[in-house]
Design goal:
The protein is an alpha/beta fold. 32% of the residues lie in helices and 12% in strands. The protein is built from 8 helices and 5 strands.
Length: 236
């Protein structure tokens, strides 16, 4: 196993996830997020271990926190966590639980795992940053990115947040929806259409294509909030 300093490759992630053994009931949820998480932390987000407490940093919120193994692996690969912390995860004295705890996990912005909480919290975060008038060193407004599952869109709290964000023009907010076909109800016209109806910019992309993901996250989208629908196989 390479040292933390050397863990800057996507290819290292399966070995890191392999360190987290035990009674993990949401491995499918974790693996479905792996590529999106890597692209965000490796190519998109303006945040690093040394800037994790900087008020002007970008924020990433994992709403899909009931499957955190991939998130922990990426945090370790990028130096937020020591690799040794992955061993014995979810045990009594481990800081890494089945749901991330923002008090215990460096780099975690929220405690998460319960469906429907992450997007409303991300909207509040983005509005709070806007109210403070904070700017990154490059002059841009700090970005807030939240990752949710398609099944979470069955929760009413998300519908309220989607509507409010579109009407308030929160352009610093990005929602990534992992679409693995797990939603019970769906939406007429598809997930992207749900966001478009409320005034969001939308992009649909293959959830394993790193270059396509990067382009979807970084191509200018104007003053509207952005929704990126990342499609993965239902079994992935």
């Amino acid at each position: 196993m390479p040292t933390t300093a050397a863990l800057t490759r996507y290819a290292d992630l399966p070995a890191l996830i392999g360190l987290m053994e035990g009674d993990e009931k949401h491995s499918v949820a974790a693996h479905s997020t792996l590529d999106v998480l890597w692209v965000l932390y490796d190519r998109v987000l303006a945040v690093a271990p040394e800037t994790a407490d900087d008020p002007t940093r970008d924020r990433f919120l994992l709403s899909k926190g009931h499957g955190p193994a991939a998130f922990y692996a990426v945090l370790a690969a990028k130096g937020f966590l020591d690799v040794s912390a992955l061993r014995g995860w979810t045990t009594f004295d481990s800081r890494l639980g089945h749901h991330p705890d923002r008090v215990l996990v460096p780099g975690a912005e929220i405690g998460s795992g319960s469906l429907g909480h992450g997007l409303p919290l991300a909207l509040g975060t983005a509005l709070g940053l806007r109210a403070q008038g904070l700017r990154r060193p490059d002059g841009a407004e700090p970005r807030t990115v939240v990752l949710i599952g398609d099944g979470e869109l069955d929760e009413g709290s998300n519908h309220e947040a989607i509507a409010a964000a579109g009407r308030l023009g929160v352009g610093s907010l990005t929602t990534v929806v992992i679409d693995n076909g797990s939603a019970l109800h769906g939406w007429p016209g598809g997930i992207a259409r749900r966001f478009e109806t409320e005034g969001w910019a939308t992009r649909e992309v293959h959830g394993r294509d790193h270059d396509a993901l990067q382009e979807a996250f970084t191509r200018p989208w104007g003053a509207r909030p952005l929704a990126v629908v990342a499609r993965v196989r239902p079994t992935a």
